[in-house]
């Protein structure tokens, strides 16, 4: 295997100069830098990442905190997967890599400290947190850990923290206004898991639009789900069984909306003639189910990209801490309404 000494010998420069090309390229002239890089490529030399981390005190690693416990379905949610692809792509463009970090599943009095030690042991340059609603104290401790942190759909604040989210309240209002404009007056909703921030915001926005139109959302017309298909199916069966039955349902997540569609079909209801259904997210399957699902679209690529850009801004230290980013939502009308 080629060594740094071989690169230096062939280029006629010192080993220290070759090291600076890979670790501190800004202090080496363009001509020397290109000479070293070309020679390294020619003889197949790759710098040792561990050595580079020690030299620069930077790992080029961004930790990803995302609950992947096999007992939970969070890892497979298509909305989160789309965000992850965008995040990884944007970080890779800046030479950064993702490292999965998992809080200790066996909660205990020292779980917070164990998790923080793991974060520092891996020497990650920053952390992205994808909220799973657990409010794990070990994860929340990152707010005071002086590690650049960006949270998604979690109002995460601290000296080196910011967050990225969609206009969930605005999206809830869009859903209600669409159904009201279609003439619906008895409208129900399947919420996300309470009290997660997106679920609360979507319900608040939805309810406020109904109130503005003089429509009351009865307690019996609100059923909680957990973002996933089965909960939407179960919640919709409950709503269908109630009299009088609502003529429209807002499911606060597309997977729940797909479950609601299935329950409606099994009950012999025609969508949208007998009951209209609108979702939230615009995951890929929303355009594929019969009928196509009307939904409130989130900018999934934009969320992942914004998270990467916020991390880069904090790592570069050239600007003030990024302000929270709230991305707009869009109404996508299909056959279910």
Automatic annotation (TrEMBL):
<keyword id="KW-0804">Transcription</keyword>
<dbReference type="InterPro" id="IPR028082">
    <property type="entry name" value="Peripla_BP_I"/>
</dbReference>
<feature type="domain" description="HTH lacI-type">
    <location>
        <begin position="2"/>
        <end position="56"/>
    </location>
</feature>
<dbReference type="GO" id="GO:0000976">
    <property type="term" value="F:transcription cis-regulatory region binding"/>
</dbReference>
<dbReference type="GO" id="GO:0003700">
    <property type="term" value="F:DNA-binding transcription factor activity"/>
</dbReference>
<keyword id="KW-0238">DNA-binding</keyword>
<keyword id="KW-0805">Transcription regulation</keyword>
<dbReference type="Pfam" id="PF13377">
    <property type="entry name" value="Peripla_BP_3"/>
</dbReference>
<dbReference type="Pfam" id="PF00356">
    <property type="entry name" value="LacI"/>
</dbReference>
<dbReference type="InterPro" id="IPR010982">
    <property type="entry name" value="Lambda_DNA-bd_dom_sf"/>
</dbReference>
<protein>
    <submittedName>
        <fullName>Transcriptional regulator, LacI family</fullName>
    </submittedName>
</protein>
<dbReference type="InterPro" id="IPR000843">
    <property type="entry name" value="HTH_LacI"/>
</dbReference>
<dbReference type="InterPro" id="IPR046335">
    <property type="entry name" value="LacI/GalR-like_sensor"/>
</dbReference>
């Amino acid at each position: 295997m080629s060594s740094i000494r071989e690169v230096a010998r062939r280029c006629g420069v010192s080993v220290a100069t070759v090291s600076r090309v890979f670790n501190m390229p800004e202090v080496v002239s363009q001509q020397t830098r290109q000479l070293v890089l070309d020679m390294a490529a020619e003889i197949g030399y790759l710098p040792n990442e561990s050595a580079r981390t020690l030299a620069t005190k930077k790992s080029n690693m961004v930790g990803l905190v995302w609950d992947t416990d096999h007992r939970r379905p969070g890892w497979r949610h298509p909305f989160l997967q789309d965000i992850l692809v965008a995040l990884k792509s944007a970080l890779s463009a800046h030479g950064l890599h993702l490292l999965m970090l998992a809080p200790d599943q066996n909660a205990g009095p020292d779980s917070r400290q164990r998790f923080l030690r793991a974060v520092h042991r891996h020497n990650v340059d920053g952390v992205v947190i994808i909220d799973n609603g657990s409010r794990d104290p070990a994860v929340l401790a990152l707010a005071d850990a002086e590690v650049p942190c960006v949270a998604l759909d979690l109002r995460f604040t601290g000296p080196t923290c910011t967050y990225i989210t969609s206009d969930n309240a605005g999206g809830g209002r869009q859903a209600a206004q669409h159904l009201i404009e279609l003439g619906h007056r008895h409208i129900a909703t399947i919420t996300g898991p309470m009290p997660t921030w997106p679920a609360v915001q979507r319900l608040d926005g939805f309810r406020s639009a109904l109130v503005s139109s003089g429509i009351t959302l009865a307690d019996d017309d609100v059923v909680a789900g957990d973002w996933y298909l089965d909960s939407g199916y179960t919640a919709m069966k409950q709503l269908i069984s109630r009299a009088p039955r609502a003529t429209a349902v807002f499911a606060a997540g597309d997977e729940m909306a797909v479950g609601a569609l299935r329950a409606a079909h099994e009950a012999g209801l025609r969508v949208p003639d007998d009951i209209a259904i609108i979702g939230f997210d615009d995951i890929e399957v929303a355009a594929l189910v019969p009928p196509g699902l009307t939904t409130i679209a989130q900018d999934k690529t934009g969320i992942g990209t914004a998270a990467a850009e916020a991390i880069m801004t904090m790592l570069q230290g050239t600007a003030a801490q990024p302000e929270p980013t709230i991305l707009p939502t869009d109404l996508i009308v299909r056959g279910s309404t």
